[in-house]
Specification:
Order of helices and strands: HHHHHHHHHHHHHHHHHHHEHEHEHEHHEH
Strand order of the largest sheet: 2-1-3-4-5
Largest sheet: 5 strands, parallel
Structural class: mainly alpha
Number of domains: 3
Strand content: under 5%
Radius of gyration: 31 Å
Number of strands: 5
Shape: elongated
């Protein structure tokens, strides 16, 4: 049947098909929202535990290499529990003290209110008189209806039942239960984070959804690093505001600093919301008008300084979330989950955005929530490669590197293009010659960008060699890692692709490295990689070998048994291991 032709019943089949295509996503959003709303008693603790697990995972990863998985997870959960309990107790006690202290300044408050009343504009006075007249008329009408007294029947008070007595305790018991649930979930999410990731990958494979273990690990590292630095920025904001209001003479400065730290997690309006209460206290405590203005200005100015200067320096480009997406996300999660959703809006948006960046099936989230500036350059770079435009692809990468740096260029431009090219090759959408052109062009761009951004010459403290076993497809991920480590002051070398095991061993003996990085992405190269590790350890017993790549991650026990020191699941993990070795 031709497209758009009516069927025997007179219906337009093509239009119905297009309507169903549009309606399915809308229906899915409606159903998901209904599930989130009616299941919030269960999903809110799960979301809080998940966000805490992602935020604290960088700390757990560092402790795991020292004390093991169980002890690291338990220590992180215990420290988080102590910190949360201390903050809650501290804020409760301080808020009680603030309320008691403000009540002693009633004379000052009355004086200022009287002064405001005397300076009220004429039009506002007329509005006040009008409102007062309406209130008096309403009171008169209510008094007339109350003149008719209904007969009062006295009854003996009955003893309250058990449900009435226990009713005030229900919210407290519910809050305690949800808190314990969050703690237990947090521990198991940290302790079993790699097992849960592998289960998710196997589940996705059953649904024929392509998800790489390295993508999951990189996504977790990215969002965890972002949330940790964002929390550190908010903590610094709280310390700074508490110090300044202490210098201004405002009572309980530590309370205002802690309040600023917590409320700044709310996007856009958090700092301003945190400034309202201390400004009102300053209005009540101080006799003049300058102190309240100074307190309000402290919160506003420090918030803008953190947003415009500290966060770009400390966090960099972050994760590329659109400001409009954060705003709409805050509105949506507040509507669905209330105040808890408002606090979780920014972390949840960050998690969803990064999931869309690294999981192809969730790529629509990256489009909806992402900042289009990096995606436009990434699409332009990918289009240039498809057009076999070597100079154009190099120009896009060089311009992005000049604006954002080497590592963002690798993560935002080159890596996504290589993933898309590999997917197109698996589906036979481009030829082998085209894939080879992409590999060669990317290799040249990686090397040239690294040479352009090389800093001043320093004496390297670490010698690092990159190798890949015979029959490996390409080593572009390894080359990017070597360039990033070289920018940090290490002496790096690359043995080359397509080399035999003897050639690699001879190169390693002459280079005398401290650390060897091995890339193994295809399962056919796994046995050769294990044998190569055994040979290198025989030649250089003190050598540290770290491995990475899809095949290395999938068969980590084999490489560890051969003598490999560590199998890294992402490039960022490999860099952390190298930094610790220094």
């Amino acid at each position: 049947m031709n497209e758009g032709a009516p069927d025997p019943n007179g219906r337009d089949v093509a239009n119905n098909s297009n309507g169903g295509t549009v309606a399915r996503p809308i229906l899915a959003v409606v159903v998901a929202t209904a599930v989130l709303y009616f299941s919030k008693d269960i999903l809110v603790p799960v979301a809080m535990a998940s966000v805490l697990a992602v935020t604290l995972s960088p700390i757990a990863n560092r402790l795991e290499t020292v004390v093991g998985t169980f002890v690291s997870a338990f220590s992180v959960v215990l420290a988080a529990l102590i910190a949360i309990a201390a903050i809650g107790y501290f804020l409760t006690v301080e808020l009680t003290g603030v309320a008691a202290e403000v009540s002693g300044y009633s004379d000052n408050i009355a004086t200022k209110l009287n002064a405001l009343g005397k300076n009220t504009p004429l039009w506002l006075q007329r509005v006040e008189h009008g409102v007062a007249d309406v209130q008096q008329q309403l009171q008169k009408s209510n008094s007339r209806t109350k003149r008719r007294k209904t007969p009062v029947v006295e009854t003996q008070p009955s003893s309250p039942d058990l449900s009435y007595v226990l009713k005030p305790l229900v919210p407290l018991v519910t809050a305690i239960g949800q808190g314990l649930l969050i703690i237990v979930l947090l521990f198991f999410l940290l302790y079993s984070r790699r097992d849960l990731r592998d289960r998710f990958i196997r589940l996705a494979a059953r649904g024929r959804i392509a998800v790489a273990a390295q993508a999951i690990e990189t996504a977790g590292d990215t969002v965890g690093h972002y949330l940790f630095l964002f929390s550190l920025t908010n903590f610094s904001f709280g310390v700074a505001t508490g110090t300044i209001v202490w210098l201004l003479g405002l009572p309980h400065p530590e309370f205002w600093g802690g309040l600023g730290f917590l409320l700044r997690f709310i996007p856009y309006v958090g700092a301003l919301t945190a400034a309202i209460l201390p400004t009102m206290v300053a209005f009540a405590v101080f006799p003049g008008w300058s102190k309240p203005v100074e307190v309000l200005a402290t919160f506003v100015v420090l918030d803008q300084a953190a947003a415009q200067f500290v966060e770009p320096f400390l966090i960099g480009r972050g994760i590329g979330v659109s400001p409009v997406a954060v705003l709409f996300s805050a509105m949506y999660w507040t509507w669905v989950w209330g105040p808890a959703g408002l606090l979780l809006a920014t972390p949840l948006t960050a998690c969803l955005k990064v999931a869309g960046d690294y999981i192809p099936a969730l790529g629509f989230l990256s489009v909806l929530l992402g900042d289009d500036r990096s995606s436009e350059d990434g699409n332009e770079y990918y289009r240039r490669l498809l057009e076999l435009d070597h100079a154009g692809a190099h120009g896009v990468a060089a311009r992005y590197s000049d604006e954002h740096g080497l590592e963002p260029t690798f993560n935002d431009i080159i890596r996504p293009a290589l993933i898309r090219i590999d997917e197109a090759g698996d589906q036979d959408e481009i030829s082998q010659e085209h894939q080879q052109f992409v590999v060669e062009t990317s290799r040249e761009i990686i090397t040239e960008l690294g040479n352009r951004l090389s800093g001043t010459c320093v004496v390297p403290r670490l010698r690092l060699l990159g190798i890949c076993p015979p029959s490996e497809v390409h080593s572009l991920g390894l080359l990017m890692l070597l360039e990033l480590v070289r920018q940090e002051g290490a002496a790096t070398g690359f043995a080359g692709e397509g080399k035999s095991a003897e050639e690699i061993r001879d190169f390693a003996r002459r280079f005398a490295p401290d650390v060897v990085c091995l890339s193994c992405t295809v399962m056919n190269s796994l046995e050769a990689a294990a044998q190569l590790i055994r040979n290198l350890m025989a030649d250089l017993p003190q050598l540290m070998i770290i491995a990475g790549g899809r095949a290395a991650i999938a068969a980590a026990p084999t490489l560890l048994a051969a003598g490999c020191s560590r199998v890294c699941r992402s490039s960022s993990e490999g860099r952390r291991v190298i930094k610790r070795y220094r």
